[in-house]
Amino acid sequence: MTQAELGKYLNVQNTTVSMYERNERQIDPPTIKRLCKLFECSSDYLLCQSEVRSSSLTEKETALLKAYRM
Q1: What's the confidence (pLDDT) of residue 23?
Q2: In angstroms, how far is CA 46 from the centroid of its own chain?
Q3: Per-block average pLDDT, block size 10, for the chain (70 residues)?
Q4: Res 42: pLDDT
Q5: How much is the pLDDT for 34?
Q6: What letters, b where the CB count within 10 A reaches 16 and e where it falls short, cover 19-58?
Q7: Cα separation of 46 and 52, whole Å?
Q8: Which of 53, 31, 32, 49 is nearest to 65 (CA)?
Q9: What are the two backbone dihedrals, phi and then psi, of residue 43, each rounded to the nearest 5 degrees?
C-alpha cells in the first residue's frame, strides 16, 4: 500500500502519512481506530504494546504464546 492509498483511506494527505511513519506527527485516536480496522489488529499491537496481533486470545493463550517465543 502506498502512502497515497493509505492517506486516501484515512482521509489525510500522503505527506501526513509520511510524518506518521517518521514519528513527526501524532496519530489521533479515531485514525488509530481506522488503522486497526484496516490491518485487522488491536490498538495495542499497532502501537507496539503487545506482540499479539488480535485480542481474540485468552490470557492463558497469550502467556503460552509468549513462553513459546522465548
Answers
A1: 93
A2: 2
A3: 94 95 94 92 87 74 84
A4: 87
A5: 95
A6: ebeeeeeebeeeeeebbbeeeebbeebbeeebebeeeeee
A7: 10
A8: 53
A9: -65, -35
Query: Is-contact 7 1, C-beta < 8 A?
Result: no
Rounded to whole angstroms, the Cα distance separating 43 from 54 reads 9
Grid cell digits, residue 70: 522465548
CB atoms closer than 10 angstroms to residue 6: 19
Exposed / middle / buried, residue 67 (Cβ in 10 Å: 0-12, 13-18, 19+)? exposed
Distance CA 69, CA 19 (A): 32
pTM of the model: 0.69
